Amino acid sequence: MFDDKALLNKIRDHFQLPAFTGLSRVQHDEEPDDLRIIFKATTSDGRSYAVRMMSNSYSALKDLAGQASLCGLLSGGGLNVPTRLYGSDGRPYLILSRKGREIWATVETWLPGKEPESLTIGLAEQAGEWLGAMHRIAGQALAPIPFTSGSPWSLFGQEDELDQDAQALEKALQTSGAEPPLVRELFALYREKRSILRAGWSELPGGPVQGDFSLNNWLADENGRLCGVIDFHLAGTDVFVGHLAGEASFLAYAADKESEETSEAIGDRYLEAVIAGYERSRPLNTRERSLLNDLIGLRRAFACYQVDEVLGEIKAGNTKQVNQELKNMIFYFKKDYCRAPL
Known about the structure:
342 residues, alpha+beta, Aminoglycoside 3'-phosphotransferase, Chain: A, domain 2, 2 domains, five-stranded antiparallel sheet, two-stranded antiparallel ribbon, 9 strands, 46% helix, Aminoglycoside phosphotransferase domain-containing protein
């Protein structure tokens, strides 16, 4: 295995840390186009830090600076998120070479807590409160935080992953044998909802967001309550209500998968809990609330896992199941998610 000790010493010197008295590797994912190595480092003064060495195609140095600024903004607003350290050159990162590849390193405070064992209604409400607080604080920033791209949930930009998935599915359905009326109805709904959402999209409140608000990036205390949020490497700019819809819809899906029940109502209850918690921290304005139902319908109908399910059935030649999945997607579009009191 490549010896990272020399690099760790360079990182320690650059960020002006005391001597390391303890090092443990907590993650090591190494692929040709994506490197992610994280150490927990304890220093001689008893403090602990997360030392990250990373390389990927979607992060620029400007993004690293933005991540550090967002962490500082949220921490200053009273939320328990990691604080990035700045090096001797005044930057929150260090550029290094590892195995002939350029990588960058960051150091941030290590937060106590552990990943929640499961998603509960109470935890979903707390998550909504945290997400609302993060958006509220970010929206009050005195100066824009620079990012080169939107969050993974962003719509209507060059990196609109949902639209890319929808286009791929529409193309695959052309030769799938699926019922043409179902295909026409689904994509008529898709374009109708997109058109409604696009109108005035740029005028909706937005700003920097964490980008990956999933269970594995939450920290819970000994009582199981949410006490911290980590991992800002997918942070970017987004419309707040769009980000809420994306994260809430995915959490509802995760809860549905965890449950032994098969009822659609399981996911709905978690979705409602997240949104209710969110509005306690940051109430939606009239325009945001009017769009939320369409946003959730869009997210649930064309979620990556839903599209992959249909593509898999097309590849297997299961035309009957393809038609059923299309009916499910139409159902997601037409469903009323935002019932009172939400």
